[in-house]
C-alpha cells in the first residue's frame, strides 16, 4: 500500500484490503519508512506533530498479538486532548478501537546524546495518567509487527489527564523508576473493574520504556529527535479493551500513601473531586490522596468531600483518576 492509501484508510476508518506485510521483504525498517512518509503527508496538509506513542511495551500481551518488541508512532494535534481528570473522546473514523491506560510524560528539553535514566529524568517536565485509543485496520486485530508500524503505530487518540510536575513526585530517576514499577493501576468500565496492571509490566517501568524509545527513535533513519514540549505516552498497563460510544471508563493510578473509598456525585458532571452523601445519587470509587475536606454540594446542598492532593506519605506521589466518556463529537480535524 502506498503512503497515500494508508492515509486515506486512516481518515475514513476503513479496513485495509490486504496487509502491507504481504509484500515480499516488507520488514519493520520498511514499515517505519512508510510511516514517516504518512507523517510527511499529514504535515503537508497542516497537521502538527505533538509527540509520540510507544506501543507493545507491556511484555504480558506480546503472546496475545504475536508482536514481541515495542513499536512507536506519532501523536498529532488532531489526536491529542488534555483534561484535568475527566474528558470526552470521539471515536468517529476510528477502526476497531480499543482502549489502553498509560502513563504519559511531557518533555522540558531534548535529552542529551547518550542520556542515561538520570539525564532523561532531568529532561522531563511533567507526568500524567493517559488513555490511548488504539486501532487496527486489519480484521480482528490480526497482524505482523511491520503492519502495526505502517498503521501509524496503531494510534488513534490520546487523552492526557492532570499533569503533575515531575519533581513534585520524585527527586531522582531511581525514585521515579521504583515508584512507577511498584504501582498497580485499576481499570474500570462504569462501576465494574475489568483489569489491573503493574508499572513493572511496561518494560520494567514507564521511565525505562521512555529510555528504550529514545534510543530506538534516534537509531531510525529519517526520524525526528525528541523535542521540548513533546508528549510521549509509554504503553498500556493492561490488555487493550474494545470500546464503543456511550461508555465511561476510569483509570485509577493510586498514590503511594494509599487510597480511600468515597461516593462520587452522579450530578454536576460526576467529577472525581465531588461526592454527594445523599442516598441514591452516588456510587463508590477509590480516590487517591492525602486528605479530604468538605464543601457544599452544588446540586443537592449536602456535604461534599473534596480531595486534597498533597501526595503520598513522603509528601510526593503520582496519583489520579482519569475518566473518559466516548461519544461521537469530532475530536479534531482529521
* Number of helices, where a helix is a run of at least 4 consecutive DSSP H or I residues: 7
SSE-based structural type: alpha+beta
**Overall radius of gyration:** 20 Å
| Main β sheet profile | 9 strands, mixed
Low-confidence stretches: 256-296, 301-317, 330-334
What is the mean predicted local confidence, pLDDT? 84
Report the portion of residues in β strands: 25-35%
State the order of secondary-structure elements, H for helix, E for strand.
HHEHEEEEHEHEEHEEHEEEEEEEE
Helix content: 10-25%
* Oligomeric state as shown: single chain
What is the overall shape?
globular
Q: Report the span from N to C terminus.
A: 20 Å
Number of strand elements: 18
Protein traits:
five-stranded mixed beta sheet, nine-stranded mixed beta sheet, 334 residues, 18 strands, globular, disordered C terminus, alpha+beta
Written account of the structure:
- The structure is a single chain.
- By secondary structure, this protein is α+β, with helices and mostly antiparallel strands.
- Helix content is 20%, strand content 33%.
- The protein is built from seven helices and 18 strands.
- The strands form four sheets. Strands 1, 2, 3, 5, 6, 7, 8, 11 and 12 form a nine-stranded mixed sheet that branches. The chain has a five-stranded mixed sheet with strand order 4-18-13-9-10, with no helix packed on it. A two-stranded antiparallel ribbon has the order 14-15.
- The protein is globular.
Question: What is the secondary structure topology, with strand pairs?
Answer:
Elements lengths: L2 H10 L15 H17 L4 E7 L6 H4 L5 E6 L3 E3 L3 E5 L7 E10 L9 H6 L1 E11 L10 H6 L4 E6 L3 E2 L7 H9 L2 E6 L2 E7 L7 H14 L11 E6 L4 E2 L5 E6 L5 E7 L16 E7 L2 E6 L6 E6 L11 E8 L7
Parallel strand pairs: 1-11, 3-7, 4-18
Antiparallel strand pairs: 1-2, 5-6, 5-11, 5-12, 6-7, 6-8, 9-10, 9-13, 13-18, 14-15, 16-17
Amino acid at each position: 500500500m502506498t503512503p497515500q492509501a494508508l492515509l486515506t484508510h486512516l481518515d475514513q476508518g476503513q479496513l485495509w484490503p490486504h496487509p502491507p506485510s504481504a509484500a515480499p521483504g516488507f520488514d519493520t525498517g520498511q514499515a517505519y519508512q512508510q510511516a514517516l512518509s504518512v507523517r510527511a503527508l499529514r504535515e503537508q496538509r497542516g497537521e502538527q506533530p505533538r509527540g509520540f506513542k510507544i506501543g507493545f511495551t507491556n511484555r504480558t500481551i506480546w503472546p496475545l498479538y504475536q508482536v514481541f518488541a515495542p513499536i512507536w508512532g506519532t501523536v498529532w494535534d488532531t489526536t491529542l486532548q488534555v483534561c484535568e481528570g475527566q474528558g470526552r473522546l470521539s471515536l468517529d473514523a476510528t477502526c476497531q478501537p480499543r482502549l489502553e491506560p498509560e502513563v504519559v510524560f511531557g518533555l522540558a528539553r531534548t535529552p542529551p546524546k547518550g542520556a542515561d535514566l538520570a539525564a532523561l529524568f532531568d529532561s522531563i517536565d511533567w507526568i500524567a495518567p493517559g488513555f490511548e485509543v488504539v486501532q487496527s485496520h486489519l480484521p480482528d486485530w490480526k497482524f505482523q509487527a511491520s503492519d502495526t508500524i505502517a498503521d501509524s503505530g496503531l494510534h488513534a487518540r490520546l487523552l492526557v489527564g492532570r499533569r503533575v510536575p515531575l519533581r513534585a513526585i520524585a527527586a531522582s530517576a531511581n525514585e521515579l523508576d521504583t515508584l512507577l514499577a511498584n504501582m498497580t493501576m485499576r481499570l474500570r468500565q462504569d462501576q465494574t473493574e475489568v483489569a489491573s496492571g503493574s508499572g513493572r509490566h511496561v518494560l520494567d517501568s514507564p521511565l525505562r520504556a521512555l529510555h528504550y524509545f529514545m534510543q530506538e527513535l534516534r537509531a531510525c533513519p529519517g526520524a525526528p529527535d525528541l523535542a521540548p514540549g513533546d508528549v510521549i505516552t509509554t504503553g498500556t498497563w493492561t490488555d487493550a479493551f474494545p470500546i464503543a460510544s456511550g461508555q465511561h471508563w476510569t483509570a485509577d493510578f493510586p498514590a503511594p500513601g494509599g487510597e480511600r473509598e468515597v461516593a462520587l456525585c452522579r450530578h454536576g458532571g460526576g467529577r472525581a473531586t465531588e461526592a454527594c452523601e445523599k442516598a441514591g445519587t452516588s456510587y463508590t470509587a477509590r480516590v487517591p490522596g492525602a486528605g479530604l475536606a468538605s464543601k457544599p454540594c452544588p446540586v443537592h446542598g449536602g456535604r461534599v468531600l473534596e480531595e486534597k492532593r498533597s501526595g503520598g506519605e513522603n509528601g510526593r506521589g503520582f496519583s489520579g483518576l482519569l475518566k473518559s466518556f466516548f461519544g461521537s463529537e469530532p475530536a479534531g480535524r482529521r
